[in-house]
């Protein structure tokens, strides 16, 4: 009997040790995603808060907080607050992590190996070479080759070895990029839980970037203080013969919503064509939440039309609800039932011509007529471009509200 008692105690202790929670060491960490195109580093911090651990991902000025961190024995499970993605990791004494980053894409999972070490603040190099050039300023950058060429605008701020910035495209921007200039090489990265970006290039001189790679896509750039993109209000338009947008999509409770509903009558209406998987849409949602608070009482309504990775209502609802809760979205988000394929979007809104990007923002006057359509979104990571967009967008709002 005594022997059985000791065996029971031993089993209990073993079970406890197998499930005991071991926290991560607080402070600075360096994570490295390892896709086929090369190692993609980013930095994050760990701290104890309100009885649990919180991660903060660092990209230039952005601080992206992650609260869903769980421990089972030596395993760590980190679920990202936006985008349907997670880390499944093993830890070593709370100071090193190895495992996988998993993006759930509706019909499949994309898996990327991942490692991280505690106590490291540098991103690309512990001791980079002295920079050969300072490449701060505006650049005209071309990505791809032949018919796949895409002209973008790069903007960088460099202080010694550290560099931050972004690329602006006709469909949005690459958000907060951060990296290093080492000798005559440029390295930039960003990780936001949904997308992981890695850019490299040779710096030929203060005017020329060559042999660039973005994943497997080649790119090059020349300095150009006057570089700019086409007018974002000119790219997507209504087809001839149309003045209005029409749809009938369910909200998150399954109730059908259309622009014929009373809440939209005699209102300036902003339609956000978006997806919970889209980082630029995330930036736009953050802006529109505050915009709605500012203008709703003056006669503005906003609605988001969600195009998800799957047409399954319950799966899409779960993803969109996560975004609604994270940003405390006060306006209705509608599940279109169409996927994020641009052809699907065009099919669901057949009055649109040349649909190019998520997000796309449709501005409707008090008579229900479409007045402007804005392609893409230049988020706060673009600095003055974001400020210019906000100022212009709100001037347009004021003028539409003033119309009789």
Overview of the structural elements:
It comes from Mucilaginibacter galii. This is Thioredoxin domain-containing protein. Residues 1-20 form the signal peptide. The protein is of the alpha+beta class and 404 residues long. The strands form 5 sheets. Strands 4-3-2-1-9-8-7-6-5 form a 9-stranded antiparallel β-sheet, with no helix packed on it. The protein has helices at 2-19, 279-295, 313-327, 342-348, 384-402, and strands at residues 27-33, 40-49, 52-59, 62-66, 68-72, 75-79, 85-92, 96-104, 109-118, 137-143, 150-159, 162-169, 172-173, 177-182, 185-191, 196-205, 208-214, 217-223, 237-238, 249-250, 256-257, 268-274, 300-308, 333-339, 352-353, 360-364, 370-375. The longest helix has 19 residues, at 384-402. Residues 7-20 have low confidence and may be disordered. A hairpin with a 5-residue loop joins strand 26 and strand 27 (370-375). It has 3 domains: 2-118, Beta Barrel (Lipocalin); 137-223, Lipocalin (Beta Barrel); 237-402, 3-Layer(aba) Sandwich (Glutaredoxin). It is 19% helix and 43% strand. The protein starts with a helix and ends with a helix.
CATH architecture verdict of the largest domain: 3-Layer(aba) Sandwich
Proportion of β residues?
35-45%
Kindly report the CATH topology of the largest domain: Glutaredoxin
Summed up, the domain count is: 3
Specify the number of helices. 5
What is the gyration radius calculated from CA atoms?
24 Å
Give the N-terminus to C-terminus distance in angstroms. Answer: 91 Å
CATH top level assignment of the largest domain: Alpha Beta
The overall average pLDDT, rounded, is 93
CATH homologous superfamily heading of the largest domain? Glutaredoxin
Low-confidence spans: 7-20
Task: Give the overall shape.
Answer: globular
Strand order of the largest sheet: 4-3-2-1-9-8-7-6-5
Give a quick account of the main beta sheet: strands, pairing sense, barrel closure: 9 strands, antiparallel
